[in-house]
């Protein structure tokens, strides 16, 4: 089968590797679509994503969807030909967690994740012709939702988790800062959850145009316009420390700022004075629990993610696809690989 493999920084290739066979309790999926994530780009550019360092060849990709191709022994609740996406996480290690955190599986101390170099051996990803998974990792794609759309279910799960962290958004005035793919999906999720008025802020007009198609009522180019204020809920999907001070000012007194974008892992300068004087609640949001399922249901009920899916390349053109995804001047948002 074909697979998109990174073996060191700037060494991305499409290679032939052996076809996998499902074991007991496993399912083989013929992959159809995969979305390129920022972590995939980080491995390509530097061999490092966050604290994970590439130490052996790695098949990239965790935003993927396809069709069941083979069932392992003992798998009864799935059928050949069924369209599916995945929860790419596997909890590992023998840990005890406080009872109140038991259901918050995204906070488990050790998690293997599709296409991640965090562990050795690495957890291979899904940018390949086939992927074998445990049956419990499958998520059925509802009728009316394509595998192309469902490739966005994993990042949409991140967005729905962030929206859940903010509480009830019904009728509220909301700002989403940074409308790359995650921020755009936060716009869509907030709209689906009943937000009353949604503003989107970014530095790129092309991204703001997509935000308007995804449900933003107003857009602001922060490179030349001031952010309005008095938002009950603000989502920062940029992860830019320099933005935090302005976002705190844009948050209504007593309001909530949800941090979705990853902040730097090293010392960074923040302007946090308004956090105290305005009694703002600043909340972190990390990955998702099982909001992938909620995202799929939202798509089935009419949440349209197609505006997000700006570019598509066959698997053979993976390097061009990665270059397009990494260059915002191309107007790209979510770049897809056609894996079959």
TrEMBL record:
Domain Enoyl reductase (ER): 7-337
InterPro entries on file: ADH-like_C, ADH-like_N, ADH_Zn_CS, ER, GroES-like_sf, NAD(P)-bd_dom_sf
UniProt cross-references to CDD domains, sorted A to Z: idonate-5-DH
Coiled coil: none
PROSITE patterns, sorted: ADH_ZINC
Top EC category: oxidoreductase
Cofactor (UniProt): Zn(2+)
One Pfam entry name: ADH_zinc_N
GO molecular function: L-idonate 5-dehydrogenase [NAD(P)+] activity
UniProt entry tagged with the keyword Oxidoreductase: yes
UniProt KW keywords: Metal-binding, Oxidoreductase, Zinc
EC identifiers of the protein: 1.1.1.264
Protein family per UniProt: Belongs to the zinc-containing alcohol dehydrogenase family.
Protein name stated in the entry: L-idonate 5-dehydrogenase
């Amino acid at each position: 089968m074909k697979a998109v493999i990174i073996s060191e920084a700037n060494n991305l290739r499409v290679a032939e590797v052996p076809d996998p066979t499902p074991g007991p309790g496993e399912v083989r999926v013929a992959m159809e679509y995969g979305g390129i994530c920022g972590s995939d780009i980080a491995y390509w550019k530097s061999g490092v994503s966050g604290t994970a360092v590439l130490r052996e060849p790695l098949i990239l990709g965790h935003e993927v969807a396809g069709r069941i191709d083979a069932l392992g022994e003992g798998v009864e609740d799935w059928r050949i030909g069924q369209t599916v996406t995945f929860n790419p996480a596997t909890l590992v290690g023998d840990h005890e967690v406080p009872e109140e955190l038991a259901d918050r599986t995204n906070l488990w101390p050790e998690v293997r994740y599709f296409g991640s170099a965090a562990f050795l051996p690495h957890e291979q990803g899904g940018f390949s012709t086939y992927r074998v998974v445990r049956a419990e990792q499958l998520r059925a794609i509802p009728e009316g939702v394509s595998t192309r759309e469902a490739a966005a279910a994993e990042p949409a799960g991140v967005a729905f988790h962030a929206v859940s962290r903010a509480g009830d958004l019904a009728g509220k005035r909301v700002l989403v800062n940074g409308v790359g793919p995650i921020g755009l999906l936060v716009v869509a999720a907030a709209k689906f959850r009943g937000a009353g008025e949604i503003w989107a802020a970014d530095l790129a007009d092309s991204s703001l145009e997509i935000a308007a198609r995804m449900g933003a009522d107003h857009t602001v180019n922060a490179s030349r316009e001031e952010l309005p204020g008095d938002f009950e809920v603000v989502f920062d999907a940029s992860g830019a420390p320099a933005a935090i001070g302005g976002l705190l000012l844009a948050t209504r007194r007593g309001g909530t700022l949800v941090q979705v974008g990853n902040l730097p892992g090293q010392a960074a300068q923040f302007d946090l004075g308004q956090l105290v004087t305005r009694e703002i609640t600043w909340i972190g949001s990390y990955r998702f629990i099982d909001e992938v399922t909620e995202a799929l249901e939202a798509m089935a009920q009419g949440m349209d993610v197609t505006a997000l899916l700006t570019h598509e390349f066959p698997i053979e053109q993976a390097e061009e696809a990665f270059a397009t995804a990494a260059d915002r001047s191309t107007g790209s948002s979510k770049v897809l690989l056609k894996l079959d």
